[in-house]
């Protein structure tokens, strides 16, 4: 049974990788046809599109599986996305950039639009900090609803600021995949939009399949629901951001690569978080609060490096270390709690 689950998980991974290639190619052409800047394409179109899988999972968990640890799974998925995006996902971009530069596939310097990244990080820090403060001090339901609305309204402001920002339209990408198959010799919207939706459908479907089987495997091992959703679920649901951004890093399109991630960070800190604040108890334990603090601190450090104009691939790669340390702390806490819980169970079974 375990071999079958692992096989299905790998098939889902292949689907996500192929769909991400279709999506990134299509979204670049969509930006070209609409004459949008790379910042808008990366931070809005690509970020929102690839953020859909991890947005749907907590909503479904809370609304339809509340009696089966729905709140725990939902909160874990909601907080796991920003945590992984701000550490591991950006870290993998850094490692990919270093690897591609070492192999001569791109230049060594990280070249991106500092205005785009600075704006994204500021909005993320504000929205996510409000969510953490709400968990600590907002005990009355009315206050929670008000804070949820405040967090939700941050995103329209972010969109307005993003579309107001000036930026250059990116270079014309490689030929549209759907056009290569149909051999029509043009890259028009009637070919671009179907490819974008096909890629997005593959990403969402592949991510759901991946999550289903990786959760089965993890549950066989004995993960608790909150830790499972906080660590395991985002691995699959954030694969689109990871793969899309790595593909763009390979092609030296760093603004698209980083904007895809930082834009998703803003989306995840506003839409799913607002839902969690409003429709769950939003009582965060010390472990989940720790992941929130790590995410905010990571964003603050990156923002400082952007302002100092010193951000490079090595700095991004450090995010993987922050992620590994945080997950190690989470796992050690679970092991410790498991050991301390055992004597109590034994004592109760022998009155």
Features:
351 residues; mainly alpha; A middle domain of Talin 1
What is the percent of helical residues? Answer: over 70%
Rg from Cα: 21 Å
The rounded distance between the terminal residues' Cα atoms is: 39 Å
Low-confidence stretches: 341-351
Which class do the helix and strand fractions yield? mainly alpha
Q: Kindly provide the name of the CATH class.
A: Mainly Alpha
Could you describe the 3D structure shown?
The chain is built from 12 helices and no strands. It is mostly helical. The chain has a single domain, classed as Up-down Bundle (A middle domain of Talin 1). α2 runs parallel beside α10, α3 packs parallel to α9 and α5 runs antiparallel to α10. The longest helix has 37 residues. The two termini are 39 Å apart. The C terminus is likely disordered.
What's the structural blueprint in terms of helices and strands?
Elements: H1 2-34, H2 38-64, H3 66-102, H4 114-137, H5 141-164, H6 177-182, H7 189-221, H8 225-237, H9 239-250, H10 254-279, H11 286-307, H12 313-349
Helix pairs in contact: 1-2, 1-7, 1-9, 2-3, 2-7, 2-10, 3-8, 3-9, 3-10, 3-11, 3-12, 4-5, 4-10, 4-11, 5-10, 7-8, 9-10, 11-12
């Amino acid at each position: 049974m375990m071999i079958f689950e692992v096989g299905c998980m790998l098939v889902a991974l292949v689907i996500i990788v192929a769909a991400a290639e279709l999506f990134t190619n299509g979204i670049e052409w969509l930006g070209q046809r609409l004459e949008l800047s790379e910042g808008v394409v990366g931070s809005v179109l690509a970020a929102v599109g690839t953020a859909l899988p991890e947005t749907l999972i907590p909503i479904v968990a809370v609304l339809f599986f509340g009696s089966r640890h729905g709140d725990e799974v939902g909160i874990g998925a909601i907080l796991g996305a920003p945590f992984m995006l701000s550490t591991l996902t950006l870290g993998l971009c850094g490692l990919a950039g270093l690897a591609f530069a070492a192999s001569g596939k791109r230049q060594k310097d990280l070249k991106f639009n500092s205005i785009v990244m600075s704006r994204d990080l500021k909005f993320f820090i504000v929205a996510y900090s409000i969510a953490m403060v709400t968990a600590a001090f907002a005990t009355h339901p009315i206050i929670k609803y008000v804070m949820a609305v405040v967090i939700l309204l941050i995103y329209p402001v972010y969109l307005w600021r993003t579309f107001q920002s000036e930026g250059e339209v990116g270079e014309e990408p490689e030929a549209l995949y759907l056009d290569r198959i149909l051999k029509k010799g043009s890259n028009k919207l009637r070919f671009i939009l179907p490819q974008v939706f096909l890629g997005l459908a593959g990403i969402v479907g592949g991510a759901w399949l991946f999550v289903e089987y990786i959760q089965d495997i993890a549950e066989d091992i004995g993960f608790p629901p909150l830790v499972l959703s906080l660590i395991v679920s985002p691995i699959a649901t954030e694969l689109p951001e990871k793969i899309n951004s790595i593909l763009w890093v390979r092609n030296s399109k760093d603004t698209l690569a980083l904007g895809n991630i930082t834009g998703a960070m803003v989306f995840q800190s506003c839409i799913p978080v607002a839902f969690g604040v409003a429709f769950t108890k939003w009582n965060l334990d010390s472990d989940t609060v720790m992941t929130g603090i790590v995410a905010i601190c990571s964003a603050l450090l990156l923002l400082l490096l952007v302002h100092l104009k010193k951000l490079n691939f090595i700095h991004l790669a450090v995010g993987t270390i922050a992620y590994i340390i945080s997950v190690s702390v989470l796992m050690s806490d679970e092991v410790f709690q498991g050991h301390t819980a055992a004597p109590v169970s034994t004592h109760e079974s022998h009155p």
